[in-house]
Write a structure and sequence with these properties.
This is VanZ family protein. The protein has 373 residues and is mainly α. It contains 13 helices and no strands. The longest helix is centred in the C-terminal third of the chain and has 30 residues.
């Protein structure tokens, strides 16, 4: 089997996550005067926690799984497990070596061994699934459910729940970047003639009204839903995807609240405007299961444009800064910047994807050239 697989871009993205988490916060680089590989023969650390063991073991397992899966689907069956083990092991060796030069990180031979073991387990899992025919059944499932061109959209849809994990000023409101972009441009252009070019808002804008917030929430949910609709083959499959989508959205929002405030506050985000926005999105989504693929893409772009406009014209909520302080001081601090960037960029990546789809389907086919006898 030699097919294009979404596992390749997902593996690349996950490798980026691993590097980010291993080298964060990327500041204070210095040379200690010791051999970069001395940690390999150092004594086993005396102090470690169960969280460190699990995170290092489980952290590399998805990378090994995705690499092995991608190579199996690309026809590299006999080498899939070995490469899925060797490549993450080399990546782990590289980041552990670089940790020698960061004051807040300590390289460890135990971490290196756990990372390699996790990658081996992930690759073995993909190989076992191939042996029992699970990957073949997944390929058939994907062919039955999605259009052959569904690659970028599947990657974006897979990343969407993770983008929701970072605290948001409006539930499901990805892409709220203007306040930070404005302050960043002011700092960048300070003491230059171009400072007057920055469109700085002189007055603090009014917050979104409850009705406008509910409308924005509905649009933010409809955008990825319509992206999924545009790649599916039948109304029944869209209806099933509709149910699973909102279940996943509620779970991701609840997990984000639990990570920020604790498990007892997992559903604190369900205020009246959020419930109204969810209800509107559910009903409108059901009414759109019969739309054409092209119309779904057009409406997705329209939803993204309007929701981004509403979000970026409104200020942050009073409780947003408090949410960020709680998140950034927790044990997931290594991931907060990455999840933040994902939440900022996801809608704009979806816009680019939708525009590319529209440009591709809008190009007329050239008439066939007749070959003279």
């Amino acid at each position: 089997m030699n097919t294009r697989s979404s596992a390749w871009p997902l593996a690349l993205l996950f490798a980026g996550v691993v590097v980010y988490a291993s080298l964060y916060p990327f500041t204070g680089w210095r040379v200690q005067g010791v051999s970069p590989l001395a940690f390999l023969t150092a004594p086993i650390p005396q102090y470690w926690t169960g969280f460190d063991v699990v995170s290092n073991l489980v952290g590399y397992a998805p990378l090994g799984f995705l690499l092995s899966l991608a190579m199996l689907r690309s026809g590299w069956g006999r080498w899939s497990w070995w490469l899925a083990f060797i490549l993450p092991t080399l990546l782990s060796l590289g980041v552990e070596t670089l940790q020698n030069y960061l004051p807040m990180r300590v390289p460890s031979n135990v971490d290196f061994a756990l990372n390699s073991t996790g990658a081996a387990l992930g690759g073995a899992c993909a190989w076992a699934l191939e042996r029992v025919g699970a990957l073949r059944r997944w390929s058939q499932f994907r062919a039955d459910w999605f259009e052959p061109s569904a690659h970028g959209s599947l990657v974006l849809l897979a990343l969407w729940p993770f983008a929701l994990l970072y605290p948001l000023s409006v539930p499901f409101g990805l892409g709220h970047v203007w306040d930070r972009l404005e302050s960043g441009l002011v700092v960048l252009m300070d003491d230059t003639p171009f400072l007057t070019w920055v469109p700085v808002r002189l007055e603090v804008p009014d917050p979104l009204s409850p009705m406008a917030e509910a409308f924005c929430i509905a649009l933010c949910l409809l955008s990825p839903l319509l992206m999924g609709f545009s790649e599916m083959r039948s109304m029944l499959r869209r209806a099933l995807f509709h149910f699973m989508f909102f279940l996943c959205a509620a779970g991701a929002a609840g997990l984000s609240a639990a990570l920020t405030y604790g498990p007892s506050h997992a559903w604190a985000w369900l205020n009246p405007q959020t419930i109204l926005g969810l209800g509107v999105a559910v009903l409108v989504g059901l009414s759109m299961v019969g739309l054409s693929r092209r119309l779904c893409t057009v409406l997705m772009l329209l939803s993204l444009a309007v929701s981004l406009t509403l979000l970026n014209l409104a200020p942050d909520s009073p409780y947003f800064a408090q949410s960020l302080e709680v998140w950034e001081q927790g044990r997931f601090i290594r991931f907060h910047g990455l999840s933040q960037w994902l939440g900022w960029l996801w809608p704009f990546a979806a816009l680019i994807f939708g525009l590319r789809v529209m440009a591709r389907v809008s190009v007329p086919l050239e008439p066939a050239t007749k070959i003279p006898p």
